Amino acid sequence: MENPKLRLSGVTLRFGDLTVCDGIDLQVASGELICLIGASGSGKSTLLRCINLLEPIDDGQIWLDDLEISVPGLDPNPVRRRIGIVFQSFNLFPHMTVMDNITLAPRRVLSQQPDETAQAAMALLSRFGLADKAAEYPDRLSGGQQQRVAIVRALAMQPEIMLLDEITSALDPELVGEVLDVVRQLKVQGMTIILATHEMSFAREVADRVCFLDAGKILETAPPDVIFERPSNPRTQQFLARVVRTNG
Amino acid sequence: MSLTARQRFERRERLRGIAIGTTSLVLVVAAIYWLVPLAPGWEAVQRSFFNWPILVKTFPKLLDAFLVDVMIFAWSLPLILVLSLAIALCRNTRNPALLPLRVFGAFYTDIFRGIPTILLVYLIGFGIPGLGLSRPWNSPYIWGTVALVLTYSAYVAEVLRSGIESVHSSQSAAARSLGLSEADSMRYVILPQAIRRQVPAMMNFVIALQKDVALLSFVGPIELLRQANVFKSLMANFTPYVGAAIIFLCVTVPATRYADYLLARQRAVRS
């Protein structure tokens, strides 16, 4: 791959004796959507947290364009501005309105003018059908709306990559669709996305490539039709057989 | 409107409960009212503690003196809040360069929570004016208040610190993932939630402070308790103390009820 947007090489993270990420290699092109699949505890979420520098890695390198961001001692804040992350549990700030949730970081980190930030936030909210929620507090919103606000909050920093960490796992089934629609929109607009998910049919629909993780290793990376139709690794076959049986 | 059998039953039970409660309350109050005066010393106690003419005569002066308590309270409360916040933040720093602040914070809370308040009021209220400072810096009024501020800040700092720790780490992860600095995360995300969560607990210290202002009577200012003391000596009668107690209760009981209300509301929100 020429000029990957993001490049991981031998990324390793240990919690004591447990190796959570075990020599992960991955290259992500600009505008590509990568899905990480695998059982709970396989290291999907942790890998995303490593990319966002929320977990300092023990070994390996992470490159964003041609900047190595895994150098120990590097100031993480400028990097995090360029990489948005959305969590499974939304993590909105409960004491702030939707508008304040979205505008806090642009105002404090990018030093934008308040009215400029508010306008941009309003535009984003409208785009995702949340314009009437700007003055609400998070606990007045449904889970799906909260998660969409969390996505908007990350987008307001104008990131170059979005990391989506099982963003539909905490939602009631009928609310999953509205959040996945947002991801589809982001992809159409050319956002580079890494998505950890249990929604296999969605992964199959939107992913450019799918990575199967098991015990902290990427065992297989392939386009979705290959992974889901003709997985080459026996562990992938096992996992998909199990998931398909339970998910129907 | 016709009631179901269940509703009729519940209404009967409710009325029965009210009737029993009222009766037993009336019986106990009546027993106290009739029995206590039968004690052999009651007349003497009544003369020296519940002397109506003395109460009427001294009460206005006691109220005036209470203004001093209110003043001390009013200017020590903001100082306590600011100082305790500073201490709590000191104890929360993770930056190794700020280790001295952390150590200082730990020392501070250990020492000032470990000394009885009255002892600290004596030490500082008498000790520092003894350095021979010039007016007004030799006033025990000021240094007594400082002693109160030091003690209370130590307690309130611990309340704030546990509040900060109670805000889930996912909130700080969310803040940092947006590129907010550690200071901004604390200021805009963690601290507002921590303080909101700890308001009921801090109200208890506000109530305690209202009463502990009276400890300053031992080092000088003519506040309520000191004034009552003066009247007691003057009139050889303890009724002014009862007057002082009444004044304190008028302030602390509503404050206590309010704190309970805040706690109950918080519990309702959480469940």
Layout of strands and helices, then pairs:
The complex is a heterodimer of chains A (248) and B (271).
Chain A: E1 6-15, E2 18-28, E3 33-37, H1 44-51, E4 59-64, E5 67-68, H2 76-82, E6 83-86, H3 98-109, H4 114-127, H5 143-155, E7 161-165, H6 173-188, E8 192-196, H7 200-206, E9 209-214, E10 217-222, H8 224-229, H9 234-247
Parallel strand pairs in A: 3-8, 3-9, 6-7, 7-8
Antiparallel strand pairs in A: 1-2, 1-4, 4-5, 9-10
Helix pairs in contact in A: 3-4, 3-5, 5-6
Chain B: H1 5-35, H2 42-49, H3 52-92, H4 99-114, H5 117-127, H6 140-166, H7 169-177, H8 182-212, H9 224-235, H10 239-270
Helix pairs in contact in B: 3-4, 3-6, 3-9, 3-10, 4-6, 5-6, 6-8, 7-8, 8-10, 9-10
Quick description:
With 248 residues, chain A is α/β, with parallel strands linked by helices.
Rg of chain B over CA atoms, rounded to whole Å, is 25 Å
**Main interface pair?**
A-B, 23 and 17 residues
Helix content of chain B: over 70%
Percent strand of chain A equals 15-25%
Characterize the main sheet of chain A: 6 strands, mixed
Structure explained in plain terms:
The complex is a heterodimer of chains A (248) and B (271). By secondary structure, chain A is an alpha/beta fold. Chain A has a single domain, classed as Rossmann fold (3-Layer(aba) Sandwich), CATH 3.40.50.300. Chain A is built from nine helices and ten strands. Chain A has helices at 44-51, 76-82, 98-109, 114-127, 143-155, 173-188, 200-206, 224-229, 234-247, and strands spanning 6-15, 18-28, 33-37, 59-64, 67-68, 83-86, 161-165, 192-196, 209-214, 217-222. In chain A, helix 3 packs parallel to helix 5 (143-155) and helix 5 (143-155) packs parallel to helix 6. The longest helix of chain A is centred in the last third of the chain and has 16 residues, at 173-188. By secondary structure, chain B is mainly α. Chain B has two domains: 5-38; 51-270, MetI-like (MetI-like fold), CATH 1.10.3720.10. Chain B is 80% helix and 0% strand. Chain B has helices at 5-35, 42-49, 52-92, 99-114, 117-127, 140-166, 169-177, 182-212, 224-235, 239-270. The mean pLDDT of chain B is 89. Chain A binds chain B through residues 52, 54, 76-78, 80-81, 84-85, 87, 89, 91-95, 104-105, 108-109, 153-154, 157, and chain B through 170-171, 173-181, 184, 188-189, 192-193, 196.
